[in-house]
């Protein structure tokens, strides 16, 4: 089963790194928090290296 990325929104500090690196995967919601709207628009490797490992507060996670 494919993994889905999700953002623990209360922890997000809206730095914009994930949205900037992977705009087809992450976007800001109406309250300015990042959310994953299409986890399949990038490879798991890219999401891992350019979002999960880049997020300064480590609030992006995999859900199996
Ligand atoms: S990289 Fe992390 S803190 Fe920055 S916008 Fe994305 S989820 Fe929020």
UniProtKB/TrEMBL annotation:
Its cofactor is [4Fe-4S] cluster. Residues 3-31 form the 4Fe-4S ferredoxin-type domain. One of its GO terms (molecular function) is 4 iron, 4 sulfur cluster binding. InterPro entries: 3Fe4S_ferredoxin, 4Fe4S_Fe-S-bd, ET_Ferredoxin. Pfam families: Fer4_13. PROSITE patterns: 4FE4S_FER_2 (PS51379). Keywords: 4Fe-4S, Electron transport, Iron, Iron-sulfur, Metal-binding, Plasmid, Transport. The keyword Iron-sulfur applies. It comes from the Bacteria. Transmembrane segments: none annotated. Ferredoxins are iron-sulfur proteins that transfer electrons in a wide variety of metabolic reactions. This is Ferredoxin. It comes from Pelobacter propionicus (strain DSM 2379 / NBRC 103807 / OttBd1). The lineage of its organism: Bacteria, Pseudomonadati, Thermodesulfobacteriota, Desulfuromonadia, Desulfuromonadales.
């Amino acid at each position: 089963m494919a993994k889905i990325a999700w953002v623990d929104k209360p922890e997000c500090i809206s730095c914009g790194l994930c949205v900037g690196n992977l705009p087809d995967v992450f976007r800001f919601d109406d309250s300015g928090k990042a959310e994953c709207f299409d986890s399949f628009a990038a490879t798991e490797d890219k999401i891992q290296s350019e979002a999960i490992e880049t997020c300064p507060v480590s609030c992006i996670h995999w859900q199996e």
